[in-house]
Amino acid sequence: MCRTSAELHTLGMTTMRCVVVREHGGVERLQLEERPVPTPGPGQVRVHVRAIGLNHLDTWVRRGVAGHQFPLPLILSSDASGVIDAVGRSVAGVREGDEVVVLPGVSCGACEACQSGVDHLCRDYDILGESCDGTGAEYVCLPAANVAPKPRLLGFEDAAAICLVFQTAWNMLVRRAELRAGETVLVHAGLSGVGSAAVQIARALGAQVVATAGGPEKCAKVAALGAHHVIDYQATDFVAEVRKLTGKAGVQVVFEHVGEATFSGSLKCLSRGGRVVTCGATTGGNVQVSLHQVFFKSLSILGSTMGSKGDLRHVLRMFEQGQFRAVLDRTLPMDQVAEGHRLLEAREAMGKIVLTV
Ligand SMILES: [Zn+2]
């Protein structure tokens, strides 16, 4: 049962605020609750959270997904940065005072997938804030394996905005689609969280980057991230534009996360032997696929969720070297989390939303 702050203080407990969903629904279901500050168990560290990164995933967990059971009540959010302020027994390599980012996937560490470096394929895999309590709190206890040094070039706000989206985009482009230098990739919604990560990763890999965005202001921001061509999907048909740009040949890879609104167009944009890789379906997941198109053009449809911790640590090193940057729309105080969700759902955000603690 949730107690008030005053009651917890009477019990001698130090309390913290956290963002909790107890029932699915609109932004009014987001509750700021007081809970006791957790104590790290063996193998765990406690992060004093400085900034919390929001993702579209947060809004799905809040709204609920038909046919999927979330273990409510849940503390929301998968991304955060902060400072280690307590360390449990049997923890090596992490100390109090370390500035860290949170790695958002928790796995068993003992199975074949975990030991093969593909921990995101572990059968006991949890995404923070989705299948277990997340980072939307002033303090969070995590396995020591779930923190990594904060890239020194980034402030806490920027650092809280990168892990989930860069891990996802890296796994999609590098591991699943195997995008190579000299190939052309179409990235949908190049200013969205995963989109802005994909534009930067594809550029760093040496690919030719075509991206979409809605409206001239967003298009200019995507071009500044490194896209070679930006298509304003509100003004033109992206399929026709891709055909024009590629001399009707199509692109080798399409980076999908939009779903029903774009998927059939994405398949039409592919060259022979092309690959579409998808990590999401923000406009719905029931798409029509013509098998004739798939086999005649030798297409590959690839699914992807999250990515390995090893790849994420590699990405963080690239941030350390200044090769990538976080794309923030704005920061909001933690008690304005509802406004953050509203901005994401209305597609008003031009980049990531970060809550300051
Ligand atoms: Zn495992």
3D shape: globular
- Total of domains: 2
| The CATH fourth-level homologous superfamily of the largest domain | Medium-chain alcohol dehydrogenases, catalytic domain
**Sheet with the most strands?**
7 strands, mixed
What ligands can be seen in this structure?
zinc ion
**Helical residue percent?**
25-40%
Average pLDDT figure? 95
How does the SSE layout of this entry go?
Blueprint: H1 5-10, E1 15-21, E2 30-36, E3 44-53, H2 56-63, E4 74-75, E5 79-87, E6 99-102, E7 105-106, H3 112-115, E8 126-127, E9 139-143, E10 147-149, H4 156-159, H5 163-176, E11 184-187, H6 193-204, E12 208-213, H7 216-224, E13 229-232, H8 238-245, E14 251-256, H9 263-269, E15 270-278, H10 291-296, E16 300-303, H11 309-320, E17 328-333, H12 337-345, E18 352-356
Parallel strand pairs: 11-12, 11-14, 12-13, 14-15, 15-16, 17-18
Antiparallel strand pairs: 1-2, 1-4, 3-5, 3-9, 3-18, 5-6, 6-10, 7-8
The chain binds zinc ion (ZN).
Give an overview in words:
- By secondary structure, this protein is α/β, with parallel strands linked by helices.
- Strands 3, 5, 6, 9, 10, 17 and 18 form a seven-stranded mixed sheet that branches. A six-stranded parallel sheet has the order 13-12-11-14-15-16, sandwiched between helices. Strands 2-1-4 form a three-stranded antiparallel sheet.
- Helix content is 28%, strand content 27%.
- The protein starts with a helix and ends with a strand.
- The model has no long low-confidence stretch (mean pLDDT 95).
- Helix 5 (163-176) crosses helix 11 (309-320).
- The chain contains twelve helices and 18 strands.
- It has two domains: 5-162 and 326-356, Quinone Oxidoreductase, Chain A, domain 1; 166-303, Rossmann fold, CATH 3.40.50.
- The chain has helices at residues 5-10, 56-63, 112-115, 156-159, 163-176, 193-204, 216-224, 238-245, 263-269, 291-296, 309-320, 337-345, and strands at residues 15-21, 30-36, 44-53, 74-75, 79-87, 99-102, 105-106, 126-127, 139-143, 147-149, 184-187, 208-213, 229-232, 251-256, 270-278, 300-303, 328-333, 352-356.
- The radius of gyration is 21 Å and the shape is globular.
- The structure holds zinc ion.
- Zinc ion binds next to helix 3.
